[in-house]
Amino acid sequence: EAQVTQNPRYLITVTGKKLTVTCSQNMNHEYMSWYRQDPGLGLRQIYYSMNVEVTDKGDVPEGYKVSRKEKRNFPLILESPSPNQTSLYFCASSRVGGPYEQYFGPGTRLTVT
Amino acid sequence: GENVEQHPSTLSVQEGDSAVIKCTYSDSASNYFPWYKQELGKRPQLIIDIRSNVGEKKDQRIAVTLNKTAKHFSLHITETQPEDSAVYFCPMLWGSGNTGKLIFGQGTTLQVKP
After folding, report:
1. What is the per-residue pLDDT for B2?
2. Which of A33, A43, A48 sits opposite B89 (nearest CB)?
3. DSSP string over B59-102
4. What's the rounded mean pLDDT across residues A11-34?
5. Are B21 and B88 in contact (CB under 8 A)?
6. How far apart are CA B27 and CA A27, in angstroms?
7. Is pLDDT of A89 > 60?
8. How far is CA B76 from CA A46, A64, A101, B26, in A?
9. What is the predicted pLDDT for the residue at B92?
10. CB contacts < 8 Å between A and B, how many?
């Protein structure tokens, strides 16, 4: 089954404790992206990657890191989480050059206290 | 820079009525126009899309129309049902499409009252 998976689905952590949210896709997609979703603000892009070892900042990259060492994986790293990073996070993937449909993971709800 | 604006931000209709959400874009080179639906607690999913060489596309109760001159496209939902209640997004394909990057806006929250 074609899918994007994220782990964990829910996470409660404390300020400053490093964490990683994993994202994996099995569709051989070149493009992968991380979004955060907050009430009234829609989907805002954090980072994206067009292929292995190619990453770029989105609209709200501060406080986040990513890596793309393998085509299927695109982890999101919060080196020192802060309460303003409490949010719902989505990973997505698609083909570069089309078709442009983005497949989203189930989401990770992060709470930083 | 490129951006996309949706109107209205919230929409409430009675079950059985029609709903229309309009999306205005700034990049005249845009050639791909999708609509995503996000039900409460779920992930966004593509429901319909259209290319710039097509003026309208229908899929059962939903349709998308494109006005390239005015740079807007709209989602039409007929005979609305409670399960149509969701947030709808019309992301813009960034650049010429050779990156796959979509720019999402704030979305439109549709509430269908039974």
Report:
1. 62
2. A43
3. ETTEEEEEETTTTEEEEEE-S--GGG-EEEE-PEEPTTSSS--E
4. 97
5. yes
6. 30
7. yes
8. 31, 38, 20, 21
9. 87
10. 62
